[in-house]
Each structure stands twice: as structure tokens, then as C-alpha cells.
Fold each of these.
Amino acid sequence: MGTLDGKVAIITGVGRPDGIGEATALKMAEEGASVVISDICRTYEGDMSWYPLGGWEYLESVVKKIEDMGKKARAFKVDITKKDEIEEMVKETVKAFNRIDILVNNAGSGVGVGPFLDITEAAWDKTMEVNVKGTFFCMRAVIPEMLKVGGGRIINLSSTAGLMGPAEYGAYSPSKFAIIGMTQTVALEYAPKNILINAVCPHFVETSMGRDEYQYIAMLNDITPEEAREKSIKTIPIGRPATGRDIADVIYFLASPLGSYMVGQAVPITGGGELWSP
Ligand SMILES: NC(=O)c1ccc[n+]([C@@H]2O[C@H](COP(=O)([O-])OP(=O)(O)OC[C@H]3O[C@@H](n4cnc5c(N)ncnc54)[C@H](O)[C@@H]3O)[C@@H](O)[C@H]2O)c1
């Protein structure tokens, strides 16, 4: 018996190796949930086409891992800035599994980092569109389905950069603050209807996005990515960076019966480190 037997979870942004999304999908499936995963599966337009994003083949490999566990999974190509693509995923999920109990708004974009004067208008817009509007669209599409089944859980991915603004995160940090504001206001509106909404705020997580971060810190400080990693680990009392699984365990807590008194919280996951200490 799993603690999420009979539940149906949607998780966005699962298309990159070692991501928080994949770890969360596997954890939810281990606990018995049927899992719907998605990712953008195409590049950003124009000048941002270099930005690394998740792909269909990786999504399919995660579906296979879940099916090999004897659990059910489906994958969808969804750009969370496109309302029609989200609505199609929600419709197909209900068709396949009859209900939606859990939404993890994990998809996010780090395209809006760098020296403030170098952040283009396009990077600002993309960051806000993906991190803020995408979370807004996904919550709006799923809440009506949760109301039909008497409640649900939503977990939004913020960051320690959503609790304290680090230097050179001029668009990313404001977008992650906005996610916490949205989490708090919508949580208070829907707690009486048994939809419990919270955010998690990881510090450094060694995912594909986290490793991109080491490259960035290395470039800024004229050191190697390995040295950047060591520098970052020295700031973490627990002595190692987080893995996707560390974050997935906290997301699971909030999605499971264990999290039944959690409403509108922004939970830092830092290994004991300062909120921001690259
Ligand atoms: N890695 C870290 O250190 C860290 C720290 C704090 C918060 N976070 C947040 O955790 C979440 C997961 O990040 P991760 O580290 O697992 O990185 P990741 O790169 O594996 O996951 C982010 C995913 O979002 C997807 N995505 C981007 N734009 C999209 C769009 N328009 N539509 C659909 N999908 C889109 C990407 O394709 C990618 O697969 C993100 O919201 C990130 O901001 C990460």
C-alpha cells in the first residue's frame, strides 16, 4: 500500500536528466500515484534558442521507468506559457485517470540571470512568462478539477532566490518572489475548499540547471566549474549539494497525508546554508 494510492499527479518540467521533476515523478509513483509528466520539448524562440530545455525522448524514458515499477504514467508536450496546451493535458489526464489530485509546478526558466544591464527585455519577459504566468495558467487549469473531487494539493517551485534577492538574478529572483506571493494568496482562497497550496524554496540542487549554475559562477569568478562546485559546497553545513530526490521528498511531504496542515508556506530547503551564499 502506498500513501498516494488512487491519486493522480501532474508534474511539469520533467524533460531534463537528474531534474527535480523526474525525482518527484518517481517518488509520487513509488507512493502509488498515477503520474502525468510534461515538458516544453522545443527551443525558446529567437535569441534565447541556446537555452537548454527538456525533450520528448527523456520524458518517454521517465514514463518507462514508472511503468517498469508497475505504475501508470503519461507524457505530454506542454509549453506552460500556452494555455491551450495546458488545457489539453488536463483534459487528457481526466480522460485517462478520471481525476487530478496533485499539481507540481516544477517547470521553470533560469534565462533571466546575469549582470542586470545585460538582461534583455526578451529574457525578462520569458522569465516572467514561464515562472509566473505559467504557474498561474497551470493552477487555473487544474483547480476546477480538484474542486470536483473535493480537494487537492499544489506545490509551486520557488527558490531561496524567492526569499532573498542574490546579486545578478535580476529577472529570476523577482519571478520566484512572485511565485511565493501567488502561492500565499491562492492558498488562502482555496484552503476552505481543501486545496492546500504551498511552495518549496531549494538552494543549490545538482540538476542540469544546477550544473549550468556552476558554469555561470565559474565564468564570473574566473575559476573552473569544479572549483565553483567546491566553493558552493563549502557554504553548505551538511557538506553536499541537494539532489533532485532531496527536494522531491519535501514536495512529497506537502502532497501526502503528512502535509495536511500546511497552507501557504514557502519551505526553504538549504542543507543548513544561508539563504543565498554562492
Ligand atoms: N537546480 C537548482 O539549483 C534550483 C534551485 C531552486 C529552484 N529551482 C527550481 O526548480 C525547478 C526545477 O529545476 P531543475 O533544477 O530540476 O532544472 P531542470 O532544468 O531540470 O528543470 C526545469 C524544466 O523546466 C522546463 N521548462 C522551461 N521552460 C518551459 C516552458 N515554457 N514550458 C514547459 N517547460 C519548461 C525545462 O525544459 C526543464 O526541463 C525550476 O522551477 C527551478 O527554477 C532549481
Amino acid sequence: MNFIRRYNSLGLIAFMAFMFLVSCASYAAETSIKVTDVWSKATPNGAKTAVVYMTIENSGATADRLISVDTSLADKAQVHMMMMDGSSMEMRDMGENLSIPAQSKVELSPNGYHVMLMGLKQALTNGSHFNLSLHFAKAGTINVVSEVKPINYSVNQ
Ligand SMILES: [Cu+2]
């Protein structure tokens, strides 16, 4: 029965296309990195630097690593860590080495890790938003939106 056979092969193609879509969808869902609470402080006019904070959560079974960050708002973005050097706070460039261990959460927050924007092209104004691309060793690129909070914002408020 030619008709039946043709129907079956169309069905098979549809089934394979469906499975392909399903596997793509589950591949995308496999990204175990979730980025939340992305925020910055507003900057004074003429400021050349700004900081971005966020929470990065890895629900996967293997560690990942934040290797770079970019935004059209600044010439350069680096992952920094605040450290005490004697009695003064210093910032160290983490390079491509901010590890996000399996089943854990890394907070980028004041006095710890942060993303430093350098060569800021425009002031960050309170209430505005801007895009940031985070590049992970395993999860690939994750695009996030940073919310700009008041210049005097404190997390303990
Ligand atoms: Cu910094």
C-alpha cells in the first residue's frame, strides 16, 4: 500500500523533526547557570568606571567559570575582587578565573567580587537599565540586564 507507506515515512520525518526540536530544547535547558539580581550604582557625570553586582547560581553537577564580560556601554569589563592589602582595599583582576562551583551560588556584591566597567561611555542613571553579556566556559554566553540603583544605594538599606 503505497499511500500507507508514504504516510508512515512522512510521519517518521515529522517524528524525527520533533525529536530534533525536543533535543534542542533540552540542550538549552541544560544550561545550569542562572544569573539573578544584576544591579549597578548610578555614576556621577564624567565617571569612567562603574561596578556591576549579581548572583550567579550553578545548579549543575560540574563547576563552570565566568571567563569574560562585555557591554556596549564600556570599552572594557573585568571581573574584580576586593581585597585588603594592609589597611587599604585593593582590587584584583580575576582574569578568566571566577569559578562557579557545582551546586553553589557565587555572589558578586560590595566588598567582594564585582564586574568593573572601564571606559564608561555614558553615565549610569538611576532607574535605567543596560545589557551585559556574560561568557562562561561551559554555559556559553548569557545575556542579562542590569538595573541601575541610586548612587548612594546600600545593600543594607
Ligand atoms: Cu573593580
